[in-house]
Amino acid sequence: MAKHEIINTLKIGFIGVGNLGQAVMKAFIDSGVVSRENIRIANRTERKLERVAAEFQVRSVPTNEQLIDECDVVILGIKPQDLYQAIEPISSSFHSDHVVMSLAAGVSLSSLQKLIPSAEKILRVMPNTAAKIRRSVTAYAATPKCQPILPWIEELLGTMGVVVPVEDGEMMQSLTVAASSGIGFLYELMIYWKEWLEERGIDSDTAKKITVQTFAGAAAMAEIAPDTSLDELQRKVTSLKGVTAAGLDSMRELEIERTLRISFEKASMRDKELGQNFNK
Ligand SMILES: NC(=O)c1ccc[n+]([C@@H]2O[C@H](COP(=O)([O-])OP(=O)(O)OC[C@H]3O[C@@H](n4cnc5c(N)ncnc54)[C@H](OP(=O)(O)O)[C@@H]3O)[C@@H](O)[C@H]2O)c1
Fold first, then answer.
1. Atom of ligand 1 minimally distant from the CA of 180
2. Helix 204-223 and helix 182-199, axial crossing angle in degrees, nearest 10
3. Which of 72, 114, 194, 222 could be a cystine partner for 10, CB 3.0 to 4.6 Å?
4. Rg (CA), the chain
5. In whole angstroms, what is the distance from residue 56 CA to residue 27 CA?
6. What pTM was computed for the model?
7. pLDDT of residue 263
8. Residues 75-88: what's their mean pLDDT?
């Protein structure tokens, strides 16, 4: 059976349809790879559950247990601090044929295996919110029993954008920081960019447009030149002793790289902390 045919035979359920759960579901549906009829959702707050079910035209299920019963693939879109409480009491509802995908930041594969011992095919999946426009970088780590199903898993995750298989642990943590939190970090830079333009008399809307287009242009040029290094691309826009060179010299003197590195490390530590709290 072709990969998309396998996916078509599966019922896919989301426990927790917050920001990320909805982004993932949107990518599944928009790609045409998953049909709405095959999706089930459950959520703690009923009002949100019904709103999301109506918006996405998918079927809501009143309890997490019922969702597990009805689905072949169960996606855990719950925050790490709520995950144990939500899943531990119903963990025996899972059986060895279930495919469980956890989106929870910081929660390791081994913690998930301890939490759901009856499931054998467990994946830790880390997309970013660009999943909703199908431009996510999605890292995943999987238990060995997932090996035979990885072709269709990658097809499914590929609906969100680029898929990167990683080892659980430091590699997953780095992807979480650089790609998931990374979206937030880039917005921080974009805010400075925009404010600088505004301080120089450019109205807010135009300043935002200029900022967004500059970031998008840089990313797009890198994207269409996969064989050109980022250093080379930078060299191409930097003439000797020119304007760009002056700015770059200052950035290097001020050790922007060091600042970013420290911030990335702090974020990594928080990711570790979240995982440790979960294990307690
Ligand atoms: N946002 C990101 O960019 C991003 C990126 C990568 C990974 N993640 C991970 O994705 C997960 C979700 O994050 P988020 O930003 O989507 O959070 P969120 O918007 O707060 O969504 C979490 C959802 O889980 C629901 N929930 C909580 N306890 C539940 C339970 N016992 N049963 C059923 N549903 C329950 C919540 O319901 P109510 O609030 O409606 O009660 C909420 O809708 C987190 O683990 C986070 O670490 C997020």
1. 5
2. 130
3. 72
4. 21
5. 11
6. 0.90
7. 96
8. 94
The sign of the CA dihedral 206, 208, 210, 216 is negative
Taking the C-alpha atoms of residue 43 and residue 52, their distance in angstroms, rounded to an integer, is 10
Structure-token match 């990518």, residue found: 27
Rounded-to-integer distance, Cα 191 and Cα 242, Å = 25
CB of 173 within 6 A of ligand 1: the answer is no
Distance CA(198)–CA(181), nearest Å, equals 26
- Could you tell me the domains of the chain? 3-167 (3.40.50.720), 176-276 (1.10.3730.10)
* 279 pLDDT higher than 60: no
Residue having the nearest C-alpha atom to atom 1 of ligand 1:
20
Closest CA to 7 of 37, 52, 42, 41: 37
**Is there a contact between 176 and 105 (Cβ–Cβ < 8 Å)?**
yes
Give residue-wise pLDDT tens across range 7-57: 999 999 999 999 999 999 999 999 999 999 999 999 999 999 999 999 999
Burial of 45 (0-12, 13-18, 19+ CB in 10 A): exposed
Per the DSSP assignment, residues forming a β-bridge with 211 are none
pLDDT of residue 273: 85
Pocket test for ligand 1, best of 25, 43, 174 (most atoms within 8 A of CB): 43
Q: Is the pLDDT of residue 5 over 90?
A: no
> Is 275's C-beta closer than 6 angstroms to any atom of ligand 1?
no
Q: Tell me if 88 sits within 8 A of 82, measured CB to CB.
A: no
Least Cα distance to 191 among 208, 203, 205, 206 occurs for: 208
Distance 88 CA to ligand 1 centre (A): 17
